[in-house]
Amino acid sequence: MTTEMESEVKRTAAGPLLCFIIMMSAGVAIFVMPASFLFAVPALVLFSMGYFIYYLIHTGQHKKILSGIITSLVITILVMMIPVFGWIALSLWIFYNILRSLKTIKNLLPGALFSAILFALLVTPGIHNFSAYSPSAQLSLICFIAYTSLTVIYCLRLNRLRLDTQTTLFKCSMMWLSAPMIFLLVVSIVASVRTAFRAQTSIIQSKIKMPQQVSGYMRGNTAVQGYTRNITQTITTTSTTLLPGSGAVAASAARSLGDTTSTEGLNRDPWHMNDVTSTDKTLHFYRDDEMDTLKLGKFLTSLNVSIKMPLLRAEDVLFYFDDTVFGSGDRGVVITRSEMICDLGKAYKCFRLELSDIKALSISGSLNKTIKILTHHSAQHKFTLTQSNKGAEKLFYVLNTLIP
Question: Which end of the chain has fewer beta carbons closer than 10 Å to its terminal beta carbon, N or C?
């Protein structure tokens, strides 16, 4: 195994191992001294929150939150300038953000339920020891065994995702923070609805002249006839104006936070992740729902002639990377649900590889991307893709996600 591939294996294994060590540190501490849950559980939450903030800043995702807030401020200003259209735009924007927040809550629910079970297993022995006359070693042991079993299952699941260390730790921290995040999103939704618009009441005083009838009267021996005179009166009027409130900003901030914290995409099959593996012709990368059938047909025709294996059908192909230099579609890499086939012409030997036989992957290069594959039988395959570096990275991501 090359040094690069060894580092790739270590990279995918380090994250779940670190998560296991962190989670078991809290479990062992509480098992040895149940009262330590008063310190271990808050420390676990604070670590998760600290890493969550670090990850957002390190990966630049905090900019999404800021951009969402700025967008809401711009829309709010437009509402004040364009009354009728502005109200409609603001209402639709708040409604859109609320829907996105509700979707995030739905995605966070499994993690929240799982973390609630883990929290219960951590705090139950300590609470029982405080409330009971004598500590229950049996209860502590049962909770510790259950907590350890769930931790092992969770970390094995993380290991199967083959994420890098930073993303794995982020996913673990989000599992612990799922319940607080759901609470925060619900509060934000309620606040955004209540403060979407605000009523501004203003008091206006104006002076007007009012006619007043004066009756006749006697001034000494002289009779004064009645007449009409104008007097000035101050009139107070109250007006109520509906203005945009801070609800749009709150809803947008909650939605942006939900978008950055959502780990939904890490759990789905890659052919369902539209934002990651969708067809992009400029990157020479195609998915089955938007496949270039002409290019794929030429590739399969050339492939089925060159390989001495069962014929590959177009309906079996999930992904196709077109690496044809001259011509249209007769060179590239295709991926099905169970295997990958690479045919890049005379420069590389055509090979067909079961996905279950792949042990490790690595990608390198700046001018062109080179993907190296190590199999469970210690065989190595290496090929360089020349047509699109970003397309090669998408192909690498799909392979890295599909391998069991």
Answer: C
